[in-house]
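Below is a filled-in request sheet from our internal design queue. Each sheet records the structural input a requester submitted and the sequence that came back. We keep these sheets so that new team members can see what a complete request looks like end to end.

REQUESTER: design group, bay 2
PRIORITY: normal
MODE: inverse folding
CHAIN LENGTH: 377
BACKBONE (tokenized):
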């Protein structure tokens, strides 16, 4: 039954999460303050070990942000001017921005309409036909993995690394394998709004390659493995100990929070079906054996009007993302034009993210669904 009884359902409310873990977080932060070991140090190493174990990876290297994680990963494989890196245009800017910052050229292929992830047929064809592509960055968008097997096979045949953009997908699984455990490297973001969020910017790179891990650890401190002696020209991207302390506390709750997100996604799908809403609900592909729903995104018509309607009824929403990267002003020099990636362009006009954070109640989900139903009626 549709209802008009108004309530407030923000897109995200981190205060609810903090109430649950306040004492643990404050204690952990206090220990860092008492130690005054504020950059890297044992607190960071402890989080790196725990994160590597969680991702079923051999090594984890903390850094200052998810954007830096991508940049460091590319630097570890010596990607630079004149190189091409294959990725998608329907993602956050940092995916392609990290490529361009190093003087390399982003090369795009379209995404799939159901998973929003890289179109593997196009990607494989591009890799096989090009001798200039030096790396591939698939994106596990919204918390669901891309179909990796074909990509790994094509990349290995050409001897190029696969750098997974896992900024939105810690805890996700591909065919039972944890993100961050099976490829060359995986890059994570702990921006506060992520499923595992810091109290500021923070990032991580995981790998099973010891040499790559050691190079990453050096690159984040200006390319130095020994203080004041530099093997590479690196960057300053060290993980703060306070952020590591917060993340270490939150990591123990991540599976619980993920389960709640998964339950909310199932409830949304059920509510949409019961109300016969003319929107496309998220539905994991068979190979996405664990979707973590960093965002819950619907595909709908009259998206902008629906968003305005929901805002008036105090339902928080967001558009991830309103303009494909190949049409951004800063990438005009790449020579792409409107119509080059029709699926990505269509999604920018039709996707809408709804509240899915763990602390939501069933009445919140019903209210959001009812508001959508009232709009389309």
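RETURNED SEQUENCE:
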């Amino acid at each position: 039954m549709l209802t008009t009884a108004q309530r407030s359902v923000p897109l995200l409310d981190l205060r609810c999460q903090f109430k649950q873990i306040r004492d643990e977080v404050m204690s952990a932060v206090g220990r860092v303050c008492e130690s005054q070991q504020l950059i890297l140090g044992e607190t960071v190493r402890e989080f790196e070990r725990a994160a590597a174990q969680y991702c079923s990876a051999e090594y984890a290297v903390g850094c200052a942000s998810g954007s830096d994680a991508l940049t460091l990963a590319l630097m570890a494989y010596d990607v630079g001017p004149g190189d091409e890196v294959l990725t998608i245009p329907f993602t956050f800017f940092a995916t392609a921005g990290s490529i361009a910052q190093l003087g390399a050229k982003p090369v795009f292929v379209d995404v799939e309409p159901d998973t929003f992830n890289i179109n593997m047929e196009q990607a494989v064809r591009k890799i096989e036909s090009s001798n200039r592509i030096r790396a591939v960055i698939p994106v596990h968008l919204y918390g669901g993995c891309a179909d990796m097997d074909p990509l790994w096979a094509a990349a290995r045949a050409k001897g190029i690394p696969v750098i997974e953009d896992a900024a939105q997908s810690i805890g996700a699984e591909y065919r039972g394998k944890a993100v961050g455990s099976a490829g060359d490297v995986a890059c994570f973001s702990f921006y506060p709004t992520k499923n595992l969020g810091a109290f500021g910017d923070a990032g991580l790179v995981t790998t099973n390659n010891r040499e790559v891990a050691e190079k990453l650890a050096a690159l984040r401190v200006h390319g130095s493995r020994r203080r004041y002696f530099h093997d590479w020209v690196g960057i300053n991207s060290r993980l703060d100990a306070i952020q590591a302390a917060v993340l270490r506390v939150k990591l123990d709750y991540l599976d619980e929070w993920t389960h709640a997100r998964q339950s909310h996604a199932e409830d949304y799908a059920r509510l949409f079906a019961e109300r016969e809403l003319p929107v496309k609900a998220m539905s994991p592909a068979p190979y996405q054996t664990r979707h973590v729903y960093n965002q819950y995104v619907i595909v709908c018509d009259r998206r902008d009007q629906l968003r305005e309607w929901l805002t008036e009824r105090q339902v928080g929403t967001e558009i991830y993302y309103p303009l494909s990267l190949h049409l951004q002003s800063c990438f005009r020099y790449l020579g792409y034009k409107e119509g080059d990636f029709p699926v990505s362009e269509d999604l920018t006009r039709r996707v809408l993210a709804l509240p899915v954070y763990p602390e939501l109640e069933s009445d919140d989900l019903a209210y959001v669904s009812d508001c959508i139903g009232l709009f389309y009626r």
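SHEET NOTES:
- The domain at 17-110+117-251 is CATH 3.40.640.10 (Aspartate Aminotransferase; domain 2).
- The chain has a mean pLDDT of 96.
FILED BY: M.R.
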